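Before going further, learn to read the protein records used in this course. The integers have meaning only within a learned vocabulary of local backbone shapes. The record below shows the convention in full.
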Amino acid sequence: MASRSPAHQTLAQQLKETLRGLEPGSRLPTVRELVAQYGVSPVTVNKALSQLTQQGLVVVRPGSGTYVAERKAAQEDYGWQEIALGQRLDPTAGIRELMVPAKAGMIPLGEAYPDRSLTALKEIQAATRRVARRLEVWDWAPAEGLESLRSVVAGELGAGTTSRDVQITPGAQAALSTVFRALAAPGSPILMESPTYPGAIGVARSLGLSPIPVPMDAHGVRPELLQEAFAQSGARVFYCQPLHSNPSGAVLSPERRRAVLRVAEAAGAFVVENDYARGLSFEGDPPAPLTTLEPSRVVYIRPFSKTTAPGLRVAAIVARGPAASRIRSLRVLDDHFVSALLQEVAVDVLTSPSRRTHLQRLQNELRRRRDSALEHLREFLPQLRPWSLPTGSVFLWLRLPEGWDDVEVSRRAMLAGVQVFPGRIFFPGEPSGPFLRLSYAAVGAEGLREGIARLAEALEARA
């Protein structure tokens, strides 16, 4: 014989049915009225109301009575999405919380963009006011980009480059995604200098490509290891940053530039050149882009935001032959065109008579900040060895003592109010050791001293 539910549970279930027909805020009958209505004891009524209160269905207002609670919105069931999406590794897993702008009050020794005092903000504002008056900038723009901006990029490169070789994109990340999709099918290997820009690693993985690391040293990627990687993997694409590689700051040496191109030619492979640091060299004359040596083999990506402002999301791809046709087709599918307003502003800023003065001021200040950062590292953290002395860009690549956990160090730094990035996120494969990437882009001399002093305190706390 089935056992009966306790009386208060039976009453609670009956009251639930009643509640469904009442509006939130409606007053329930008194205990005395419920006793009379359901023929139960006051104890049973009180127990039932207590159960409904715990379930969030009613609220008791002392001295006033019991009322129907506000109904919570039903929680969305996303189970179907898990089935539809299937299993997939998140390319940003484990690093997403670190790859965010520094919070207010935090010293941003991780920021890759120069602070506002070093941007071309005044020039951009003035250009925007001028350009926005032209009605045509609010119209549909050519998918390949405006002729005016493509001509600026082609003229900067020279070496027979024409505007027909240039495709404009809404920033460097979009350019990377387009180029990788154009050159490599999902499941294909892609060679990457190691360490390298984590945004490129993430894009490759998100597209189903398999990044394969090729070690580098202070003179750039090692050609003999690149040759070996091509032979073992069968890859047909090599991604690199020959000028002030992020994070190491390495510049590909003159001897290796030719060697890398010979290795790629022998493998029948493309070289993808990310020239993000053009304009950020502050010691010596920077070498010309690799694409000027072998335009048909090198697919060139030229961002502009590091020397203008982060919000000027415009970049260029330079390619030739069937690769260029495929890139153009993909760009049409992705977003039709880049805002003509942004493109015209970029043209104004890049061709402004004040452009050279702005770059000189930016480079001089970055040199001062690099020297200041090195000085304070020697003062507070002599155990951290810079991998090399950067001659441009905004990064110091610091080797941690063996056995140290770079992620733990970066988390401790954040607790101390300093943003730095752990080295492991810059490796396409296994890290070669524990590193930190420190940036002097967004912090002046005083902030660098304070930030490095706090970092030292965080590392002492580790011990």
Remarks:
- The chain has 15 helices and 16 strands.
